[in-house]
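Subject: Sanity check before I submit

Could someone independently write out the structure tokens for this chain? I want to compare against mine line by line before I put it in a report. The sequence has 1005 residues.
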Amino acid sequence: MQNRFYPRIAFMLLLLVWYVPTFGQNVQVSGTITDEGGLPIPGAAVLIKGTSTGTAADIDGKYQLSAPSGSTLQFSFIGYLPEEVQVGNQSTINITLEQDLSDLEEVVVVGYGTVKKSQLTGAISSVGAKEIAEQPITDARQALQGRSSGVDVTSPGSKPGAAPQVRIRGRRSFNASNDPLFVVDGIPIAGGINDINPNDITSMEVLKDASATAIYGSRGANGVVLVTTKRGTAGKTVVSVDSYYGVNQSLGTIEVFDGPAFAAYKRESRRATGNYPEGPATQEADEALFEPVELEGIAQGRTTDYIGALLRTGSIQSHQVGVSGGSEKTQFFVSGNYFQDKGVVKNQDFTRYNFRANIDHKINDKIKIGTSTLVSYSERNGENFNPIGGAMQENPLGKPYDDEGNLIFLPTSDGLRTNPLAEIVPGANMDLTKRYRIFNSIFGEWQISKGLSYRVNFGPDITIDRNGRFTGSMTNSRRGGSPTGSISENFRFNYTLENIISYTKSLNDIHNFKFTGLQSIQNDNYEETDIAVLGIPAASQLFHRLGDASQITSANTNLTEWTLLSFMGRLNYDFKGKYLLTATLRADGSSRFGENNKFGYFPSVALGWNLTDEPFIGTSDFIDQIKLRTSYGAIGNQAIDPYQTQPLLDRTSYAFGNSPAYGYGPNTIGNPNLRWETSSTFNLGADFSFFAGRIIGSLEYYITTTEDLLAPQPLPNSTGFGGFTTNIGKTRNRGIELTLSSVNIDKTNFSWSTDFIFNRNREEILELPNGDDISAGRFVGEALTVFYDYKKIGIWQSDQEDEANAYGDNVGEIRVEDFNNDGKINADDRQILGSAVPDFVLGMTNRFNYKNFDLSFFIYGRFGAMIRSRFHDSFNSLFGRYNNLAVNYWTPENPTNDYPRPNQNQESPKYASSMSYFDGTFIKVRNINIGYNFSDEIASKIGMSSLRIYSSIQQPFIFSEYRTKHKGIDPEVFIDGDQGTGGGEVNENISPAITSFTLGINAKF
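---
Independent answer below. Compare away.
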């Protein structure tokens, strides 16, 4: 598919380069381009407007070109404001370009307000609409991966609708959430951002240090992501159309034995126990081992590719129409979007419909109101469905269809393994989630007097989820039994109400003050309803008439509520814009804590120094900006389940005489003294810009210490309780972050720029109440989660038989390290093997422009992490009953150290888990995008103000030892357990990695 797709696109793009504009008589124009100080600007671009024709200034700032007399020349250079001059009859045009300070004066959203970039004291990184639009993504969080320093985003596999996992500056907590807070158009949200259309987002600011996040108090303990959606501007109404369509192809699957290799593997499992003769296979021995269908498969050389039969060529598409504009009084942005991701695994897809209306209206010079409204509906198939694992284990010698083409439910006589293709028969499995979301951000703003304003924000958020599941009789989980069905419905109503007062005062243009005060309340109401049944009479009913079933197996409803009351004060002060101070105090009262610790108080302070404004720096020819920042502050975390402070009851059943009866008994132990988990962060940062904006970036160093961690504490079984939630331990995160953007080449017809990020974070447990907690996998001095297991060092070889027997092992079995050198292998020989936390993360985007063409590619890499591949233990058995990974196993003729000898007496290898740990280092080419921008004249001829067509390829390459050496697929993992997958693990719940090819259009009218 790839070989056919891109030549066609290249041919289409070449057809576009045919236009040569004509304006009339040409004039020979020359001149000099200088800066405000009269110095020449070598390399400054001169372009005939609306064309790709131009030139560049030489080392003395001089230029010369031929231009039509009716044309307009555009003069530009990085770091300077562009100028336009009409040619007319002029033969000499000298230009002075003014320095562009817009990058330094750019306004950054900081929460409850904005600040100029040059006045920023906190650690904040940004991702704009350009980065978001460069690749087709389902979830806006995916755009942060490799583009925002300090942010670790993981998105394993390709299951449609699956949400990425985001960690900002590492993990702090054992049990409380490590997810950041997302704030959309000023409203903190509780229902996630997966319903938001990425095309509607204009920017995402990531607040990382305590100074930046403290204004959100307990909700900002794990960092804050401010999402700002597009808004209208006064002027001409603009209609935009953004559309793309693409195909998805599997980037590979885990390799299992084909038919002949499986037969050899099964024979070897019997040779190991003396139940199959040594030497070449014989017909007589095979007939004693294999069943008739397997013998037929061997004779025919049959290999049934069950995995391939479950896969397809998927597709991804997005179509959006947006309308923006307005008058001086009213501005609007309205959009509608249709998005669909059809996965490469059959029965997996995700479809979303979005409508957005952002409206701002000025009632008078004092009062302004507005709203941001999102209405979303989505359908997701296959959230809990993935038949790949079963297909990997199915005997490849089996026969999936009879001679008439009918599916055979049992391809072999093994009753525990049914035909994986039965799982995708229409109506056999249904796993459908419907989701409705209405999210609003409504505000009113009153300019009370000069410098004094009041704003009220109200954000109602309604989410309705309904998951319906049906499992038919002829599936592996039912194996001819009665069909089952279930419905799970969730209703969430969350609202935020904020009152904000702001006061700005300047004294003699020297002392500048800004105070922001906040009172806020957030309330969450979450209702759950679940029912599951057995014995649905007609498969066609699916889960729509559960009342007709013969048996109700479970039914439950639940209500969870919590409230957060907050007060905040922030003072910003600067002296001549040179010395900067930000001081914040936040108080949060959470219903999740008891009366003794209801409120938490979280202060922070930040200092900044604009060295560029100092006399010894300001006269430099190459320094645009150097700013030093430092901050310290504390933030709380209350992200635990409600009601942990209270003892809860649970219903029990017992016999009352000869009759069943029900009662209630203690279920959990409450802890009224439960208190806030608190993180204190020190941050030291520097922002810089050199050579008129050719090199800009920031460097950060931080230390975050978290105390009073919220975590379960085990209790002796004799108490009748497993444990209770309490405050234990201390953790620390230390790291370095670098963000760097450079303009490498900037010529008339060609430019090249690079964006680069580097993250290095070290998380460490500093204290535990009773030292190392092996049962929970927690060790002082190590990351919050580690892999603690036996270390495989090879396979016992024939000349090591005596030593193997001394350890209770045999030749051909896994050899693990005797860690404590006591001459035996037991639980004391387990050791810390590694962690899913990477040593460092890199992201790099390169952008090229040549005339009307543009090209960009994005590379992302994680280095030094360890992953656990559950394929290599769960699907790597010895018996020969199920198919196996296509591994290099030990035999007397093949004395490898890779994998143990098959053995019919061992269903699973001894120390099997030791085979599953691998280096998770990888480099991915995430996106390659090539586009062509039509000239304004061509666009106007077809009724458009601008037109661009483009093609892109997502994830064409993954470079990883896990793929090349160990036959894995994608080493990208969730750092914490999520979506049916353990932390740092790869398993059968993850759909195969994919490559996507897309073709799209961006048009404005």
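---
OP: Matches mine. For the report I'm noting this point. The chain has a mean pLDDT of 89.
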